[in-house]
Amino acid sequence: MVGREREIKELNKLYEKNKAELVAIYGRRRVGKTYLVDETFSDRITFRHAALSPADEESRGLLKVQLEHFYNSLDLYGMDKTEKPKNWLEAFLLLEKFLQKIDDGSRQVVFLDELPWLDTPHSGFMRAFEGFWNNWGCHRKNLMVIVCGSANSWILDNLINNHGGLYGRVTREIKLSPFNLHECEEYYKENDVTFSRYDIVQSYMIFGGIPYYLEYMDGEKSFAQNVDDIFFAKKPRLQNEFERLFDAVFVNSEAVKSIVRLLYTKNAGYTRHEIIEKLNISDGGRLSRNLNALIASDFIMKYVPFGMSKREEHYKLIDPFCQFYLHFVNSHEKINHKFWQQNTTEQSVVTWRGYAFENVCFNHIEQIKDALGIAGVITTSSAWSKRDDDENGVQIDMLLSRNDNVINMCEIKFYSGIFAVNKSYYNLLLGRQETLSREVSRKMVIHNTLITTNGLKKNEYSGIFTNVITMDDLFKESR
Which helix (H) or strand (E) holds 277? Predict the structure, then answer.
């Protein structure tokens, strides 16, 4: 398995303990949670059950269908024939009896996949699961229960941050994040897909390190051909993926999608007040739940722009797949089936690459800090813009504000060749530095920093940059 070394080591360590374990694994849909458990434990799983998606059934009969499916899973694992359960209390009692009967003293691993889907309206699932763990499971030293789910807010609210009967009962939580560039490169090598690092960065701009999407890459085709096959062909492989991402996970999927579509329209994102105003929705608990769910699933982030107060914190879309889909796929009624191959140098694509590369950099702050030699320095990162009276103003791609009294003013440039600074750009950078210096404490030192693909050409103006970080630096393995 590529990547996931830390998670595999942690799971195996928990397996070796002589203690009841309730492990919650969560992460964005398609990130590889099920694959992680299957590959880590392979033939060591005592019982596994994957819930049915509620999007595929009428809610009225969903409880009955889920219970029958649970019973069928027990039957496949060798449970003695018995009456089918009428509710979740009976279903978990059957599981307890089955595990007791086959208990030989060795470790028992129970894997419940997509657990949130079992919690259908008025099903009593949570009460039954609470009873299963508190009254029986937590007292069995050889039992390890692993639960997974893509509905991250459900996992957080009902298990990890539960204030009721399951308070403090989860013994370990694991959030599975998308691959970084290093792991994407390893994944492609493992699957005999040969791309340059320039193209791997572009693939990250589109897929964001989601293993499920990387699987679609055909090593016998170019990167551009692959993009066309996946998004722009007559029958593209990910044709309805945007809708599926949200419909299968979020209860209020249309409301969630409207937030995502709004945040896509502004690279810096919007404040909560602006979201309410632009979507004409009420300010309340539902909006909070939707925003928190999107944050927990790594679709959006919440940050405070440099120099602003916490009251002005912004919500920003950071999921590359959603950004790409809304920019190129959703916005075209009639799609050229070779769109990517024929438009790689068009201005719309070049402009998108600039914004998308910024997103790549924000997702690799650890590698950027390491390249700067400040891995151990407490640092906050954000974009920054300031309007002048003439409405021209300045905009800085990334600011790294460090506890060692240095601010890295980062320019981010996705460039096919070696980047060169000319006189006008040199003067522009001086102006930005001067504007920023008026906004920060006198004790802070500003370092102009370039983050680009292939490095900086030495000339009379290149000395404006104190630091230069290249694409290769972003591919470094996380420590």
Answer: helix 272-279
363-385: average pLDDT: 92
Residue 227: count other Cβ atoms within 10 Å of its Cβ. 26
Coil, helix or strand at residue 449:
strand
Residue 51 amino acid letter: A
**Strand 108-113 to strand 314-317: parallel, antiparallel, or no bridges (unpaired)?**
unpaired
User: What is the residue whose two structure tokens read 């799983």?
Assistant: 45
Burial of 327 (0-12, 13-18, 19+ CB in 10 A): middle
Tens-digit pLDDT profile for residues 151-187: 888 898 889 988 888 888 999 999 999 999 999 999 9
The alpha carbon of 300 is separated from its chain's Cα centroid by a whole number of angstroms, namely 9
Query: Where are the domains positioned within the chain?
Result: 5-175, 179-363, 365-474
Q: H helices of 122-271, where?
A: 125-135, 152-155, 181-190, 197-207, 211-214, 223-227, 241-247, 253-264
CATH number of 365-474: 3.40.1350
Closest CA to 455 of 465, 472, 470, 466: 470
- How far apart (Å, rounded) are the C-alpha atoms in residues 291 and 288? 5
State the Cα–Cα distance between residues 10 and 215, nearest whole angstrom: 26
What fold does the segment set 5-175 form as a domain? Rossmann fold (3.40.50)
* Beta-bridge partner residues of 401: 380, 407
Residue 285's pLDDT band, with cuts at 50, 70 and 90, is: confident
In the structure, what pLDDT confidence band is assigned to residue 20 with cuts at 50, 70 and 90?
very high
Exposed/middle/buried for 80, CB within 10 Å: 0-12, 13-18, 19+? exposed
Q: What is the residue type of 102?
A: I
The answer to whether 447 and 466 have CB atoms below 8 angstroms apart is yes
Q: How confident is the model at residue 59 (pLDDT cuts 50, 70, 90)?
A: low
Could you tell me what percentage of the chain is helix, strand and coil, using 3-state DSSP and rounding each to the nearest 5? 45, 15, 40
Average pLDDT value for residue range 18-47: 94
Quote the CA–CA distance of 104 and 321 in Å, as a whole number.
47
Q: How many CB atoms lie within 10 A of CB 364?
A: 23
Mean pLDDT of 225-229: 95
CB atoms within 10 A of CB 406: 17
Query: How high does pLDDT run on average in the chain?
Result: 92
Across the range 73-82, mean pLDDT stands at 95
Mean pLDDT of 293-321: 88
Cβ 221 vs Cβ 229: under 8 Å: yes
Nearest to 19 by CA among 174, 175, 173, 172: 172
